């Protein structure tokens, strides 16, 4: 199976790009915004202003390119890695900050944003995404669901159950595997014999494509095709984005303990943000002045969101046991009383 790409490793277009100039610029702005936030997030975490945070640096094109293909009223069912996908699909930055600060005000996403909360248990989001997609079909809504999983997550039983169910019911869902080569410290070579995860789609009689996950144009065009097929009743698609996590697994991880400098630096040479910027330069759409202005705007946006999050009153300790079940269990009730009474 060919790995679809539109940009060279340096970023020069290898063929005509199937998007208008306005769309390419819109795509780049989202991509740059995703990078800007991720870099700031790591700093905020080190300052004690975020809890543990899973960075996605290197995987922006896979996430942003996928979500650019969806409409606002479509749904996103993300795992913990997908902060960039969530931002692209409209999650307010302030809510994202509060979420990763473990503040209850970030636990519930706004009602007009069609994103389920980040799933932490690996691959559990997949069957739920399929159920949601099937429900949308039953409602006759013509809406599509985006969901993501890592290469490691494809070894879970939930992956099989979700793809099988989606295939049998022709559910309107697009599965994006971000194959970043590592499940924390376990390389894909120790996890599977499959050379391309996209080839597994054949087992479910669904289309499967492998794309250069650091090429925004390749991801976006593959996702656009998959979404159009789903919306027209053609069922699910599996997209595998070949990418690399340039950052640690989380802010608690030290990747130098399991992977080599050479491997990491080879991927820095294929940085998805720089590649897209080079493509725009090449097309005469972007220059250093545009970049400086965009970065200034992003800085203001992020500063404002951080200030708004900082201004949110601290939660009460008892909120730890609220909102877990509709009615508290006896244990929670006891804990709640202790926290309430300070006993
Ligand atoms: C069911 C379950 N088992 C184990 C874990 C611990 N865990 C957290 S991340 C991770 C690796 C996931 O790797 P991958 O699916 O490739 O995604 P990536 O983190 O690379 O985005 C594991 C095993 C978990 N969160 N859930």
Number of strands: 8
Question: Helix content range of the residues, please?
Answer: 40-55%
Unreliable sequence segments: none
For the record, the CATH class of the largest domain is Alpha Beta
Q: Give the overall form.
A: globular
Q: What ions, cofactors and ligands are bound?
A: thiamine diphosphate
Give the SSE order as H and E letters. Answer: EHHEHHHEHEEEHEHEHHHH
CATH structural architecture of the largest domain: 3-Layer(aba) Sandwich
The separation of the N and C termini measures 64 Å
Rg result: 20 Å
Give the biggest sheet.
6 strands, parallel
Strand order of the largest sheet: 1-7-8-4-3-2
Taken together, the total number of domains comes to: 2
- Strand percentage lies at 5-15%
Structural class: alpha/beta
Total helix count?
12
Let me know the CATH homologous superfamily of the largest domain.
Answer: Thiamin diphosphate (ThDP)-binding fold, Pyr/PP domains
Domain Dehydrogenase E1 component: 33-317
Subunit structure: Heterodimer of an alpha and a beta chain.
Cofactor: thiamine diphosphate
Enzyme class: oxidoreductase
List the keywords.
single chain, 10% strand, Rossmann fold, 343 residues, six-stranded parallel beta sheet, 8 strands, globular, THDP-binding, alpha/beta, transferase, 2 domains, acyltransferase, two-stranded antiparallel ribbon, EC 1.2.4.1, 43% helix, binds thiamine diphosphate
Question: Care to give the gist of this entry?
Answer:
With about 350 residues, the protein is of the alpha/beta class. The chain has helices at about 20-45, 60-70, 85-90, 95-100, 125-140, 155-170, 190, 215-230, 260-270, 270-280, 290-310, 330-340; strands at about 5, 75, 145-150, 175-180, 180-185, 185, 210, 235-240. Strand 5 (about 180-185) and strand 6 (about 185) form a beta hairpin.
């Amino acid at each position: 199976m060919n790995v679809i790409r539109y940009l060279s490793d340096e970023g020069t277009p290898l063929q005509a790009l199937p998007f208008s100039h306005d769309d390419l610029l819109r795509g780049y702005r989202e991509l740059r915004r995703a990078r800007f936030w991720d870099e700031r997030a790591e700093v905020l975490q080190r300052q004690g202003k975020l809890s543990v945070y899973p960075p996605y640096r290197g995987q922006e094109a896979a996430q942003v390119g996928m979500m650019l293909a969806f409409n606002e009223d479509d749904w996103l069912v993300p795992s913990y890695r997908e902060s960039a996908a969530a931002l692209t699909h409209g999650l307010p930055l302030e809510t994202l900050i509060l979420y990763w600060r473990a503040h209850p005000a970030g636990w519930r996403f706004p009602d007009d944003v069609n994103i389920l909360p980040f799933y932490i248990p690996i691959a559990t989001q997949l069957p739920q995404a399929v159920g949601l997609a099937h429900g949308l079909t039953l409602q006759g809504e013509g809406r599509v669901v985006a969901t993501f999983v890592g290469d490691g997550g494809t070894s879970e039983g939930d992956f099989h159950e979700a793809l099988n169910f989606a295939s049998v019911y022709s559910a309107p869902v697009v599965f994006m595997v971000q194959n970043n080569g590592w499940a924390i410290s376990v390389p894909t070579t120790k996890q599977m014999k499959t050379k391309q995860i996209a080839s597994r789609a054949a087992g479910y009689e669904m289309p499967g494509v492998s794309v250069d996950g650091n090429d925004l144009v390749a991801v976006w065009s593959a996702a656009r095709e998959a979404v159009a097929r789903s919306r027209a009743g053609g069922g699910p698609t599996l997209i595998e984005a070949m990418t690399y996590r340039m950052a640690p697994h989380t802010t608690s991880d030290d990747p130098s303990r399991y992977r080599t400098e050479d491997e990491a630096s080879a991927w820095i040479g294929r940085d998805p943000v720089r590649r897209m910027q080079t493509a725009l330069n090449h097309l005469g759409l972007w220059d250093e002045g545009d970049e400086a202005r965009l970065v200034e705007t992003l800085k203001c946006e992020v500063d404002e969101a951080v200030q708004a999050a900082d201004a949110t009153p601290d939660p009460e300790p008892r909120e730890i046991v609220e909102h877990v079940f509709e009615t508290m269990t006896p244990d929670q009730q006891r804990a709640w009383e202790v926290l309430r009474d300070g006993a």
